[in-house]
């Protein structure tokens, strides 16, 4: 599952769906869902519920956040624990935010190069 902050702006929320589509295309996970921490559906709890309903016994929550902060270090882990408590026997894990990663550096350089004539 991919989770981001969520927005009142629908277009901003659709971005996560686009990312999820690219993750699905890579075939890394048998099931890929999205969730928003707040401001837009589906919530993290709703997305975990959907994963379990589709037969998942393990749910990995990949945080689509760049930097660690209150949401990524406290709120989302708490929401994940709450969702896991409603589903005994289902393992729920939470990734670190994207942070400092070579892939992020590559993306940053690519975007900067796109501005060059």
Count of individual beta strands: 4
Helix content: 40-55%
Biggest sheet details: 4 strands, parallel
If classified by CATH, what would the architecture be?
3-Layer(aba) Sandwich
Q: Would you summarize the structure shown here?
A:
The chain has one domain (2-114): Rossmann fold (3-Layer(aba) Sandwich), CATH 3.40.50.1400. The chain has four helices and four strands. It has helices at 10-26, 44-53, 70-85, 102-114; strands at 2-4, 34-36, 58-63, 91-94.
Overview of this protein structure:
- Helix 2 (44-53) crosses helix 3.
- The chain starts with a strand and ends with a helix.
- The longest helix is centred in the N-terminal third of the chain and has 17 residues, at 10-26.
- The protein contains four helices and four strands; from the N terminus they run βαβαβαβα.
- Strands 2-1-3-4 form a four-stranded parallel sheet, sandwiched between helices.
- The protein has 117 residues and is α/β, with parallel strands linked by helices.
- It has one domain: Rossmann fold (3-Layer(aba) Sandwich), CATH 3.40.50.1400.
- 48% of the residues lie in helices and 14% in strands.
- Strand 3, helix 3 (70-85) and strand 4 form a beta-alpha-beta unit.
- It has helices at 10-26, 44-53, 70-85, 102-114; strands at residues 2-4, 34-36, 58-63, 91-94.
């Amino acid at each position: 599952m991919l989770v981001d902050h969520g927005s009142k702006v629908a277009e901003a929320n659709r971005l996560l769906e686009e990312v999820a589509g690219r993750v699905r295309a890579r075939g890394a996970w048998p099931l890929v869902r999205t969730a928003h921490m707040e401001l837009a559906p589906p919530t993290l709890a709703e997305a975990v519920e959907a994963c379990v309903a589709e037969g998942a016994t393990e749910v990995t929550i990949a945080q689509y956040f760049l930097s660690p902060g209150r949401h990524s270090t406290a709120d989302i882990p708490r929401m994940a624990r709450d969702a896991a408590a409603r589903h005994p026997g289902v393992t729920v894990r939470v990734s670190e935010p994207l942070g400092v990663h070579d892939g992020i550096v590559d993306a940053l350089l690519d975007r900067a190069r796109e501005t060059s004539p």
